[in-house]
Amino acid sequence: MMKSYLYNKVLGKGLLLFVLFAIPSLMTSATELYATPDSSLSDMIRHARELKRTGKSTEVTIHLSAGVYQLYEPLRLRPEDSGLTIVGKDAVISGGISIRSWKKEGKLWVAEVPDFNGRPIDFRQLWVNGRKAIRARDVTDFEKMHRILTYDKKNQVLWIPKKAVSKILQTPYAEMVLHEMWCTSNLRIKSVTVQGDSAAIRFHDPEAKLQFEHPWPSPMTPDTGHPSPFYLTNAKELLDEPGEWYHDIRTHKLYYMPREGEQLPTSKNTTTMIVPVMETLVQFIGTAEHPVRNITMKGIHFSYTTWMRPSYQGHVPLQAGMPLIEAYKLRPSIDRPNNHKLDNQGWLGRAAAAVELRYTEDCSFYGCHFEHLGGSGLDYVIACRRGMTTNCLFTDIAMNGYVCGSFSSEGLETHLPYQPTDFREVCNGQTIEQSEFYDVSNEDWGCVAICAGYVSGITIDHNTIHDVSYTGISLGWGWNRDLICMKDNKVHANLIYNYARHMYDCAGIYTLGNQPGTLISENVVRDIATPSYVHDPNHWFYLYTDEGSSNITLRNNWTPSEKFLKNANGPGNVWENNGPEVGDSIKNNAGIKK
Questions:
Q1: Is the pLDDT score of 3 beyond 80?
Q2: Residues 238-287: pLDDT tens digits?
Q3: CA angle, corner 304, sides to 186 and 35, nearest 5?
Q4: Is the dihedral of CA 259, 68, 309, 500 positive or negative?
Q5: Which three-class secondary structure state does DSSP give residue 192?
Q6: I need a labelling partner for 221 at 20 to 30 A (CA). Which of 106, 340, 431, 456 fits?
Q7: Do the bridges between strand 198-203 and strand 157-161 make them parallel or antiparallel, or are there none, so unpaired?
Q8: Is the pTM of this model over 0.85?
Q9: 273-276 and 127-128 strand pairing
Q10: Would strands 150-152 and 146-147 be described as parallel, antiparallel, or unpaired?
Q11: pLDDT one-digit tens code per residue, 177-214
């Protein structure tokens, strides 16, 4: 029996309406459920679960009609939901709320920020008509950022020009975003002390301790010739350009300076002002013994999330946006067999993503959009087997676009080899293909479009990546050449251009660690950006095998020149026919297939 249900929630009465249409079929027992934006998606998922549990259906598809499905908590997909398909048609699963009651105050629009789900809210993003607004900052043009003067690790003081802080001397919650080689740090300013033409900046803990104790990456001082730039943000006094906003968490007032042509939101126009109230929209939650299996999501837009750790604890990353939880320099350095000495220790956390998967098999995404996100996009976190990500779009994302695999769990020092006793922990067999990434890493400049850590058998194929802040594809982790869990990865026929818009020490394709059987082939990397403020204007590459990279083959990759780096590599790497002599057939075949 093929069954079809119209499922809707009648607001205010708590009634659920089901309309059943029965179509005889001798071949299958499948059920189609249809939702509107007024439906409860969590109730819909539970209903689908019960249909299968009670034997009324073996297959369930939930169809989401066009519109916005606003959540108050993440949707949770469990092993009991295995086999479910969710299909959207212009359907947006949203973690944001609309701010509606605006009034004009001079050049600004002002609104009271409502509570959400019974509590006041804070946030780090605002979107106006689907376009990200700018959190008030001291520069419009990043080429005009101020530079640091002195970096005093012992006293935990950063010295900067006095003129840089003239507007924020009385501001309670200002932040500094500091450019550091291949990362940026978000640092909450604790105090500003002016001395002559300089100012001493001190930061709140825990980020102050992390910032001044961790050695890598470090800020660059004037003696290097390229002192680190920074910008200041999150102060009403800095709100002076169209498109900027500021949220006063003490008064719950939101201030916005409209861009030209934008209309004050009223009942007479369709202007939308959306702030995010959630960090994660969908969670796949299984166990090693009972994974979530065979869930497919098609054509859905995942939008409007935030990541609040920088507001509460700062954000000092090691690489690829992975936040340091504890880190310090070692004296003396540690001897490591088969590797050079290690001069630092670090333990990492992980940023939230809009969609997170843990302990899954064959859970896939087709034609989905990951956009307007304050954390990362899609994250296969741990113990995920297979799973396709095909024909998807990743854009307007603050951090990483697609993330897969471990980046050293918080209990494992990040330079130690990761070889779990239970190999089920390792993400294995994922495919990301035919997808486009742009305007990714637009807040955390050290993040990347596709970020794969300790993975095995991943295929990264025929994607187009452009206009990103740092590296295009990062594959591997660990900074050592020990034989671990990584193997048989494929990076094939991707097109990467206009990368490194803000950070260097980068590449179109970058690797770490020992990865037997890994093949990087027939990719095209070209057109690196040239920001003036990078720490070393020559330290960029098309292909970059970094520390411990071993047993990797790089073959037939087209680049405008042979600007490659092989840094502290292990054995077994093979470089064959990479550079401008690669044939046009390969050059023309890279990227999304038309």
A1: no
A2: 999 999 999 999 999 999 999 999 999 988 888 999 999 999 999 999 99
A3: 160
A4: negative
A5: strand
A6: 340
A7: antiparallel
A8: yes
A9: antiparallel
A10: unpaired
A11: 999 999 999 999 999 999 999 999 999 999 999 999 99
Give Cβ neighbours of residue 75 (< 8 Å, ≥ 6 apart): 41, 42, 45, 93, 281, 282, 283
- The pLDDT tens digits for 9-51 are 333 333 343 333 334 444 458 999 999 999 999 999 999 999 9
Q: How far apart are CA 297 and CA 300, in angstroms?
A: 7
Report the pLDDT averaged over residues 322-345. 95
First to last CA, the chain: 39
* Averaged pLDDT, 130-151: 98
Residue 6 has pLDDT above 70, yes or no: no
* Residue 578 one-letter amino acid: N
Maximum C-alpha span of the chain: 86
How many other C-beta atoms are found inside a 10 Å radius of the C-beta of residue 272? Answer: 15
Q: Where in 45-95 does DSSP place strands (E)? A: 59-64, 67-70, 75-77, 85-94
Average pLDDT value for the chain: 95
Tell me how far apart the alpha carbons of residues 246 and 508 are, in angstroms, rounded to a whole number.
35
Give the tens place of pLDDT for each residue, 403-454. Answer: 999 999 999 999 999 999 999 999 999 999 999 999 999 999 999 999 999 9
> Do 506 and 470 meet the contact criterion of CB atoms below 8 Å apart?
yes
Residue-wise DSSP of 110-122: EEEPPPBTTB---
What is the distance between the alpha carbons of residues 554 and 566, in angstroms, rounded to a whole number? 12
**Residue 5: pLDDT band with limits 50, 70, 90:** low
Candidates 302, 347, 345, 348; CA nearest to 321 is 348
How many helices and strands in the chain, by DSSP H and E?
Answer: 4, 53
Which residues make Cβ contacts (< 8 Å) with residue 507, sequence separation at least 6? 471, 472, 525, 540, 541, 542, 543, 544, 565
Place of tokens 């979530």: 292
Q: Which of 251, 254, 307 is nearest to 98 (CA)?
A: 254
Q: CA 530, CA 537: separation in Å to the nearest integer?
A: 8
Question: How would you classify the pairing of strands 198-203 and 183-195?
Answer: antiparallel
Query: Whole-angstrom Cα distance, residue 82 to residue 241?
Result: 49
Q: How does pLDDT run across 69-92, given as a tens digit for each residue? A: 999 999 999 999 999 999 999 999
Strand ranges, E, within 26-173 = 30-35, 59-64, 67-70, 75-77, 85-94, 96-98, 102-105, 108-112, 127-128, 131-132, 134-135, 146-147, 150-152, 157-161
| Matching residue, tokens 């050293």 | 408
From residue 136, alpha-carbon distances to 124, 130, 243, 256, 325 in Å are: 11, 18, 9, 9, 28
In 3D space, the residue among 483, 481, 496 whose CA is nearest the CA of residue 456 turns out to be 483
Measured CA angle at 430 (ends 424, 436), to 5 deg: 150
